Amino acid sequence: xxxxxxxxxxxxxxxxxxxxxxxxxxxxxxxxxxxxxxxxxxxxxxxxxxxxxxxxxxxxxxxxxxxxxxxxxxxxxxxxxxxxxxxxxxxxxxxxxxxxxxxxxxxxxxxxxxxxxxxxxxxxxxxxxxxxxxxxxxxxxxxxxxxxxxxxxxxxxxxxxxxxxxxxxxxxxxxxxxxxxxxxxxxxxxxxxxxxxxxxxxxxxxxxxxxxxxxxxxxxxxxxxxxxxxxxxxxxxxxxxxxxxxxxxxxxxxxxxxxxxxxxxxxxxxxxxxxxxxxxxxxxxxxxxxxxxxxxxxxxxxxxxxxxxxxxxxxxxxxxxxxxxxxxxxxxxxxxxxxxxxxxxxxxxxxxxxxxxxxxxxxxxxxxxxx
Length: 371
Ligand SMILES: NC(=O)c1ccc[n+]([C@@H]2O[C@H](COP(=O)([O-])OP(=O)(O)OC[C@H]3O[C@@H](n4cnc5c(N)ncnc54)[C@H](O)[C@@H]3O)[C@@H](O)[C@H]2O)c1
Ligand SMILES: [Zn+2]
Fold this sequence. Notes:
Blueprint: E1 14-18, E2 25-29, H1 37-41, E3 49-54, H2 58-70, E4 75-80, H3 89-101, E5 109-114, H4 116-128, E6 134-139, H5 142-148, E7 153-158, E8 161-168, E9 173-176, H6 186-203, H7 205-219, H8 223-243, H9 258-268, H10 275-292, H11 298-310, H12 322-330, E10 341-347, E11 350-355, H13 358-367
Parallel strand pairs: 2-9, 3-4, 3-5, 5-6, 6-9
Antiparallel strand pairs: 1-2, 7-8, 10-11
Helix pairs in contact: 3-4, 5-6, 5-8, 6-7, 6-8, 6-10, 7-8, 9-10, 9-12, 10-11, 10-13, 12-13
């Protein structure tokens, strides 16, 4: 449902619709929105509100959100452990236990307050509790604000693979406050910028150029520059998801840099490189492969690498086994019958899907320092 609030929302706020027929919702972006989360939950008329948060984010922001929700409906806080290593069914169970204990019903609303890991876990819990209750995303990392909170993909990891267990479950609203990024470690900010660069590269040359020009301000934590980047990325992602909610076509373009990136994450062990760092390197490899396929010139490949370096992200992660990377990419859940579907660049600002011959992919990996 689209929120029709009695809204005193301020003019500086960006509102971006995600156009999905009966599941349409809006993304609200603006400084100072965190203490007002309740105003965005209120139009959903919840019987109770369940704020889910991690041990790291709870001491920083949970009380503010709980206080603003209390004015709307009885509010409960559920705190879970932090980090990619607990993104599993066990942690989903803990959230479900908390919902049962607090007697959440079908008209309750879950508020997912945290980074991409928390959003994926809490969103999945919302998708299965009583066959699906509504939830609101309140992302607190740049990566979650520009990417994971939008689009309705929820889920957790399995020892057999990342994000293997999940569901599509669209939030009822997304509320992003750039102020909360002030406490985010700089490395996490840079990791989020990788996804911002990705959005420009795959869909919008002008946005890519604007992002590269704004990099010093983004790295400096300039609130206005961050709000623009979040809004720009959400517009691109919302448009793609609006065309293809369940990834039967265009949505796969959002995986630019991710086939390589996931292989890097798996082979170096989750946590060595942050997701965004692996993706940044993956963007450079995807650009190189695009050149190998004759789609773009060397100048464009260099431009991608220069942007990644300017953002303080790794353009090369050398020393990974080339054979293991090929194997890992073939078993990625996005591969079918062992054939890897790559997302490559037709030009900066336009991605396409292509299959590439193994020798070309290997040449790209070796050029990128794989051994
Ligand atoms: N659902 C999707 O469409 C989608 C898209 C992209 C990524 N993802 C998932 O997102 C996850 C990565 O998300 P992430 O990069 O946000 O990591 P994360 O959620 O682990 O957050 C990174 C770290 O920052 C901390 N943190 C969060 N907000 C903070 C704040 N405001 N101040 C200080 N510390 C804060 C977290 O507690 C954590 O320790 C991955 O699991 C990935 O699979 C999902
Ligand atoms: Zn990503």
